[in-house]
Write a structure and sequence with these properties.
alpha/beta; globular; 7-stranded mixed beta sheet; 240 residues; two-stranded antiparallel ribbon
């Protein structure tokens, strides 16, 4: 077999591997580009310790956590782009993913492209730069649960502590004030069957929840800028 045929077969295999990776996990690393970045999608509902029905679109945190570890260790990956279109989901799982992203040395940019609701907010603000398209929206509301809830003071304290963890993370990783975030969560005038606030892309930026408005192109350019201006993670690395 000629060298040209070997190269062609190798390219075809790589394309199949990338297609399978997208199908299985929603992830892909772009090779033929200015900088090698990895795209990670968080879509549907964030699935935690409870398995959701098969007809529910989910992002499984047991898939995302090891993927983040692999991305952080991979010397060839220069940046991480996180695309968000999520209705929220499991609080513990969402916070775990958000803390992992916030603790990465790899440059990160998040882009909310449809919705970044509920626990999707900590996920969005966990990146070095958070962005949102003008047509997207975010729902800010207090912690909720389904199933049996014991009407005792201990239960109230437990929910308050969870809410403090969520609020603390959002405030530390965005420009929104504690007072503004609290008033948005306890708003009773906007949602018919719940309390909270729905904000558009522009409103999310104006209140300091998200850093800036932008498109996919803007997000990639911002990530490139981070890569080019930040100190290299592995200055003496030799990439394969």
């Amino acid at each position: 077999m000629s060298e040209k045929q070997n190269t062609s077969n190798s390219d075809a295999e790589q394309q199949l591997d990338r297609a399978q990776l997208i199908a299985d996990t929603g992830e892909v690393s772009s090779r033929n580009c200015k900088h090698l970045i990895h795209c990670l999608t968080i879509i549907g509902q964030v699935e935690g310790h409870t398995i959701l029905p098969e007809d529910t679109k989910t992002t499984k945190y047991e898939h995302i956590l090891p993927a983040l570890v692999a991305i952080e260790q991979d010397r060839s990956i220069e940046g991480l782009l996180i695309l968000l279109n999520t209705m929220g989901g499991d609080v513990e799982a969402g916070l775990a993913i958000a803390e992992m992203i916030a603790g990465m040395q790899t440059p990160t940019v998040s882009l909310v492209i449809g919705g970044g609701h509920s626990i999707g907010i900590p996920l969005a603000v966990s990146a070095d730069i958070s962005m949102i398209v003008p047509s997207a929206s975010m729902t800010v509301h207090p912690v909720r649960t389904s199933g049996l809830v014991l009407g005792v003071p201990q239960t109230t304290v437990y929910f308050e502590k969870i809410q403090e963890r969520i609020n603390g993370f959002i405030i530390r990783n965005s420009q929104i004030s504690e007072k503004t975030l609290g008033s948005m969560m306890l708003n009773t005038q906007e949602l018919a069957t719940d309390i909270g606030t729905v904000v558009s892309g522009e409103e999310a930026v104006s209140c300091g929840l998200i850093d800036r408005l932008g498109t996919l192109h803007d997000a990639i350019e911002s990530l490139y800028h981070l890569i080019e201006t930040q100190k290299p993670r592995y200055p003496d690395a030799e990439y394969a």
